[in-house]
Structure formats: C-alpha cells, structure tokens
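Notes from the 1:1 (GR / supervisor)

We went over the backlog. Supervisor wanted to see one worked example end to end before approving the batch request, so GR pasted a single chain during the call. The sequence is below; no edits were made to it. Supervisor asked that the structure be written out right there so they could see what the output format looks like.
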Amino acid sequence: MNKILKNLVFVACMACAASAYAELKVGVVQVEKILQEAPQTTESGKKLEREFSPRSQELDRMSKQIKELEAALDKDGLTISEAERRNKERDVQNIKIEFQRKQRELREDINLRKNEELSSLQDRINKAVQSVSETEGYDLVVYSGVAYASKKIDITDKVLKLLGKK
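Structure output shown during the call:
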C-alpha cells in the first residue's frame, strides 16, 4: 500500500511538472536586427554627426591648409633661401602634428560618445523587451545567441514596434 501511495504521488508530481512546462511561454529577441532597424539608432547617428561636424570641418580645413603649404613649398623651394625653406618646413610639420593630435582627440571623443549613445539605446531596448514580455505574459525571453528559435517565439518585431519602428 505504501509503495502504491508513493507511485501515485510520484505520478501526480510528474503530471504537475509536465503541465507547468506546457504553460511556459518563451520569447527570443534579435538584438542585431533591433540595432539596425530601431529609429533611435538613426537618430543617434545624426545627433553624433551634428555634434562633431564643426570639429570635422576644422580638420578638413587643416588638411587643405597643409596641402596648400606643401604645394607652395614645392613650388617656391628653389627660389627661397635655405633658412626660409627650413622655417616653412618646420611650420608645415608643426601644423601636421597639430592636425594629427586633433584628429586623434576627435576619434577618441566620437568613440566615447558612441559608447554613451549605445548604452542609452541598450537601456531603452531592455525596457522595451521587459515591457513586451510583461504585457504578453512571457516567462522567459532570451537575446540572440540561440542556436535555433522558431518565428512564433521571436518577439523582435514587437520590440521594434514599441521602440517606434513599425
């Protein structure tokens, strides 16, 4: 009798576990697709472009100035004195060094701001995923990196819709 009761409890537990798994709702989010298609990505790129446009234009002007000075030096190199030629070469070299410094600083600042914008976008994506998950009653949502996920559990388009894409 005791053995029958144990078996009956075991079967009941297995039935409960099976029904719990049957009700599990799983979703998948393709982060790469969101990063490519979310309107915030485009807005972020335009924002960075506006922010760093003046400095990029300054670098373009410096580059043209260097080319003009080098062309003038090549043209006038034979007609000016050795001391004057050395002074002009030194001036060109100083401008080149300043140009490289400003170029490096611009790259570093752009990378820093891109990382800040990406972090902000990731926060918005996480909030959108959480909102869709809670609204639609998902028990588990995983990001990309899954070996296989059927279309019926892919909630990427819903997240994009919440972000304003579709």
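Supervisor's comment: The radius of gyration is 31 Å.
Batch request approved.
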